[in-house]
Amino acid sequence: MRAPLLVACLLSIVPSVMACGDDPDPRTTxxxxxxxxxxxxxxxxxxxxxxxxxxxxxxxxxxxxxVPLDAGPGQIxxxxxxxxxxxxxxxxxxxxxxxxxxxxxCGRCGVATPDDIVAVHRNDVDDNRSxxxxxxxxxxECAAPPDPYLIATCVAGACVPVNLHxxxxxxxxxTDDCTLITNECCGCGEVGLDRAVAINRTMGSVGRxxxxxxxxxxxxxxxxxxxxxxxxxxxxxxxxxx
Length: 242
Description:
Elements: H1 2-21, E1 98-101, E2 118-121, H2 125-132, E3 150-155, E4 158-163, E5 178-182, E6 189-190, E7 196-200, H3 206-211, E8 223-224, E9 229-233, E10 236-240
Parallel strand pairs: 6-8
Antiparallel strand pairs: 1-2, 3-4, 5-7, 9-10
Protein backbone atom coordinates (compact mmCIF):
# COMPACT_ATOMS: atom_id res chain seq x y z
CA MET A 1 0.00 0.00 0.00
CA ARG A 2 2.98 2.33 0.60
CA ALA A 3 4.38 2.15 -2.97
CA PRO A 4 1.32 3.55 -4.73
CA LEU A 5 1.05 6.23 -2.10
CA LEU A 6 4.73 7.32 -2.64
CA VAL A 7 4.23 7.52 -6.42
CA ALA A 8 1.19 9.73 -5.98
CA CYS A 9 3.13 12.07 -3.73
CA LEU A 10 5.97 12.40 -6.28
CA LEU A 11 3.51 13.10 -9.10
CA SER A 12 1.97 15.91 -7.05
CA ILE A 13 5.38 17.50 -6.37
CA VAL A 14 6.74 17.55 -10.02
CA PRO A 15 4.32 20.23 -11.40
CA SER A 16 5.24 22.55 -8.56
CA VAL A 17 8.95 22.17 -9.30
CA MET A 18 8.43 22.74 -13.02
CA ALA A 19 6.36 25.80 -12.32
CA CYS A 20 9.22 27.24 -10.22
CA GLY A 21 11.76 26.81 -13.10
CA ASP A 22 9.73 28.62 -15.84
CA ASP A 23 10.70 32.12 -14.46
CA PRO A 24 7.70 33.82 -16.05
CA ASP A 25 7.89 37.51 -16.99
CA PRO A 26 6.43 39.43 -14.10
CA ARG A 27 5.04 41.93 -16.60
CA THR A 28 2.69 39.33 -18.12
CA THR A 29 -0.28 37.52 -16.71
CA UNK A 30 -0.71 33.80 -16.63
CA UNK A 31 -2.35 33.94 -20.05
CA UNK A 32 0.64 35.96 -21.64
CA UNK A 33 -1.11 39.33 -21.81
CA UNK A 34 0.80 42.45 -20.74
CA UNK A 35 -0.02 43.60 -17.29
CA UNK A 36 -1.63 47.04 -16.97
CA UNK A 37 0.39 47.72 -13.83
CA UNK A 38 3.85 47.00 -15.39
CA UNK A 39 6.04 50.12 -15.74
CA UNK A 40 9.66 50.78 -16.72
CA UNK A 41 12.03 51.86 -13.94
CA UNK A 42 12.59 55.64 -13.67
CA UNK A 43 16.23 56.27 -14.57
CA UNK A 44 16.17 60.08 -14.33
CA UNK A 45 16.53 62.62 -17.12
CA UNK A 46 18.42 61.62 -20.25
CA UNK A 47 21.07 63.57 -22.10
CA UNK A 48 18.44 65.65 -23.93
CA UNK A 49 17.09 66.94 -20.61
CA UNK A 50 20.36 67.89 -18.90
CA UNK A 51 19.75 71.65 -18.94
CA UNK A 52 21.30 74.35 -21.14
CA UNK A 53 24.28 73.12 -23.14
CA UNK A 54 27.32 74.94 -24.54
CA UNK A 55 25.11 76.77 -27.06
CA UNK A 56 23.61 78.69 -24.11
CA UNK A 57 26.86 79.26 -22.23
CA UNK A 58 26.36 83.05 -21.98
CA UNK A 59 27.84 85.90 -24.05
CA UNK A 60 31.03 84.97 -25.89
CA UNK A 61 33.97 87.04 -27.13
CA UNK A 62 31.72 88.79 -29.66
CA UNK A 63 29.90 90.39 -26.73
CA UNK A 64 32.98 91.17 -24.65
CA UNK A 65 32.02 94.81 -24.16
CA UNK A 66 32.78 97.99 -26.13
CA VAL A 67 36.15 98.22 -27.87
CA PRO A 68 38.25 101.13 -26.54
CA LEU A 69 38.26 103.30 -29.69
CA ASP A 70 38.86 106.50 -27.76
CA ALA A 71 42.20 105.71 -26.15
CA GLY A 72 43.22 109.33 -25.85
CA PRO A 73 45.33 111.51 -28.16
CA GLY A 74 48.21 109.69 -29.82
CA GLN A 75 51.27 110.79 -31.72
CA ILE A 76 49.19 111.87 -34.73
CA UNK A 77 48.06 114.92 -32.77
CA UNK A 78 51.47 115.86 -31.44
CA UNK A 79 50.84 119.58 -31.76
CA UNK A 80 52.58 122.07 -34.01
CA UNK A 81 56.06 121.03 -35.11
CA UNK A 82 59.19 123.17 -35.21
CA UNK A 83 58.66 126.08 -37.57
CA UNK A 84 62.00 127.67 -36.81
CA UNK A 85 64.46 126.06 -39.21
CA UNK A 86 67.52 127.59 -37.60
CA UNK A 87 68.83 129.29 -34.46
CA UNK A 88 67.20 132.47 -33.19
CA UNK A 89 67.93 135.36 -35.54
CA UNK A 90 68.66 133.21 -38.61
CA UNK A 91 65.15 132.74 -40.03
CA UNK A 92 64.75 134.02 -43.58
CA UNK A 93 62.70 133.86 -46.75
CA UNK A 94 65.29 135.09 -49.27
CA UNK A 95 69.02 135.89 -49.34
CA UNK A 96 68.41 139.64 -49.05
CA UNK A 97 67.04 138.99 -45.52
CA UNK A 98 70.50 137.93 -44.34
CA UNK A 99 73.70 139.79 -43.47
CA UNK A 100 77.21 138.78 -42.43
CA UNK A 101 78.59 139.58 -38.96
CA UNK A 102 81.59 138.45 -36.94
CA UNK A 103 80.71 135.62 -34.58
CA UNK A 104 82.86 137.22 -31.89
CA UNK A 105 82.25 140.59 -30.32
CA CYS A 106 85.04 142.45 -32.08
CA GLY A 107 85.81 140.45 -35.20
CA ARG A 108 88.79 141.82 -37.08
CA CYS A 109 88.46 145.54 -36.59
CA GLY A 110 84.69 145.10 -36.51
CA VAL A 111 84.25 142.89 -39.59
CA ALA A 112 83.89 139.17 -40.17
CA THR A 113 86.71 136.92 -41.35
CA PRO A 114 86.57 133.39 -42.83
CA ASP A 115 87.29 131.98 -39.35
CA ASP A 116 85.00 134.38 -37.48
CA ILE A 117 81.68 134.63 -39.27
CA VAL A 118 77.94 134.24 -38.75
CA ALA A 119 74.87 135.01 -40.88
CA VAL A 120 71.76 136.52 -39.24
CA HIS A 121 68.55 138.20 -40.30
CA ARG A 122 69.10 141.90 -40.84
CA ASN A 123 66.40 142.71 -38.28
CA ASP A 124 68.29 140.76 -35.60
CA VAL A 125 71.67 142.47 -35.90
CA ASP A 126 71.29 144.40 -32.62
CA ASP A 127 70.22 141.30 -30.71
CA ASN A 128 73.15 139.35 -32.11
CA ARG A 129 75.62 142.04 -31.10
CA SER A 130 74.12 142.19 -27.61
CA UNK A 131 74.63 138.46 -27.16
CA UNK A 132 78.10 138.39 -28.74
CA UNK A 133 79.26 141.26 -26.52
CA UNK A 134 77.39 140.22 -23.36
CA UNK A 135 80.70 140.07 -21.49
CA UNK A 136 82.54 143.42 -21.49
CA UNK A 137 85.28 143.28 -24.11
CA UNK A 138 87.76 146.02 -24.99
CA UNK A 139 87.78 145.93 -28.80
CA UNK A 140 90.75 147.53 -30.62
CA GLU A 141 90.14 150.98 -32.01
CA CYS A 142 90.39 150.17 -35.68
CA ALA A 143 88.19 149.76 -38.71
CA ALA A 144 88.48 147.55 -41.76
CA PRO A 145 86.46 147.18 -44.96
CA PRO A 146 84.28 144.07 -45.18
CA ASP A 147 85.51 141.09 -47.16
CA PRO A 148 83.26 140.99 -50.28
CA TYR A 149 83.93 137.25 -50.70
CA LEU A 150 82.03 136.54 -47.47
CA ILE A 151 78.33 136.60 -48.27
CA ALA A 152 75.11 135.51 -46.60
CA THR A 153 72.41 133.45 -48.28
CA CYS A 154 69.14 131.80 -47.28
CA VAL A 155 69.05 127.98 -47.31
CA ALA A 156 65.93 126.08 -46.22
CA GLY A 157 64.65 129.09 -44.29
CA ALA A 158 67.89 129.79 -42.42
CA CYS A 159 70.59 132.40 -42.98
CA VAL A 160 73.88 130.70 -43.88
CA PRO A 161 77.35 132.24 -44.38
CA VAL A 162 79.26 131.41 -47.59
CA ASN A 163 83.00 131.85 -48.12
CA LEU A 164 83.57 132.44 -51.84
CA HIS A 165 87.34 132.25 -51.29
CA UNK A 166 86.99 128.44 -51.20
CA UNK A 167 83.78 128.02 -53.22
CA UNK A 168 83.93 126.16 -56.58
CA UNK A 169 82.51 129.26 -58.27
CA UNK A 170 85.87 131.04 -57.93
CA UNK A 171 88.12 128.24 -59.25
CA UNK A 172 89.91 128.94 -62.54
CA UNK A 173 92.53 127.68 -64.93
CA UNK A 174 93.21 130.97 -66.75
CA THR A 175 92.22 134.62 -66.55
CA ASP A 176 89.80 134.07 -69.41
CA ASP A 177 87.70 132.01 -66.99
CA CYS A 178 87.10 134.97 -64.67
CA THR A 179 84.65 137.85 -64.67
CA LEU A 180 83.56 140.57 -62.24
CA ILE A 181 80.25 140.73 -60.40
CA THR A 182 78.96 142.47 -57.29
CA ASN A 183 78.45 140.58 -54.05
CA GLU A 184 74.79 141.53 -53.87
CA CYS A 185 71.66 140.86 -55.87
CA CYS A 186 70.86 143.60 -58.42
CA GLY A 187 74.16 145.36 -57.76
CA CYS A 188 74.62 148.35 -60.00
CA GLY A 189 76.24 151.74 -60.08
CA GLU A 190 79.87 152.39 -59.26
CA VAL A 191 81.47 149.38 -57.57
CA GLY A 192 84.63 149.47 -55.46
CA LEU A 193 86.77 146.79 -53.80
CA ASP A 194 84.29 146.42 -50.95
CA ARG A 195 81.61 145.03 -53.31
CA ALA A 196 83.50 143.54 -56.28
CA VAL A 197 83.98 139.76 -56.62
CA ALA A 198 85.72 137.80 -59.37
CA ILE A 199 84.15 134.44 -60.24
CA ASN A 200 84.45 131.76 -62.90
CA ARG A 201 81.88 132.64 -65.55
CA THR A 202 81.11 128.96 -66.20
CA MET A 203 81.22 127.36 -62.74
CA GLY A 204 78.94 127.59 -59.75
CA SER A 205 75.81 129.67 -59.38
CA VAL A 206 76.60 132.75 -57.33
CA GLY A 207 73.51 134.46 -58.73
CA ARG A 208 71.31 131.92 -56.95
CA UNK A 209 73.21 132.41 -53.68
CA UNK A 210 72.75 136.18 -53.96
CA UNK A 211 69.22 136.37 -55.36
CA UNK A 212 67.58 133.07 -54.38
CA UNK A 213 65.53 130.64 -56.44
CA UNK A 214 63.17 133.41 -57.59
CA UNK A 215 65.25 136.53 -58.31
CA UNK A 216 63.44 139.81 -57.76
CA UNK A 217 63.12 142.29 -60.63
CA UNK A 218 66.24 144.45 -60.78
CA UNK A 219 66.33 148.12 -61.77
CA UNK A 220 67.52 148.90 -65.32
CA UNK A 221 71.14 149.61 -64.43
CA UNK A 222 74.51 147.87 -64.60
CA UNK A 223 77.49 147.80 -62.26
CA UNK A 224 80.46 150.01 -63.15
CA UNK A 225 83.82 148.55 -62.05
CA UNK A 226 86.10 151.32 -63.30
CA UNK A 227 89.70 150.09 -63.48
CA UNK A 228 89.05 146.90 -61.53
CA UNK A 229 89.60 143.66 -63.42
CA UNK A 230 89.42 139.93 -62.81
CA UNK A 231 92.50 137.68 -62.97
CA UNK A 232 93.21 134.01 -62.26
CA UNK A 233 95.74 133.88 -59.44
CA UNK A 234 96.90 130.59 -57.96
CA UNK A 235 93.84 128.77 -59.28
CA UNK A 236 91.33 131.34 -57.97
CA UNK A 237 89.64 134.28 -59.62
CA UNK A 238 90.68 137.49 -57.89
CA UNK A 239 89.87 141.20 -58.15
CA UNK A 240 92.86 143.28 -59.17
CA UNK A 241 93.10 147.06 -58.66
CA UNK A 242 95.86 148.43 -60.90
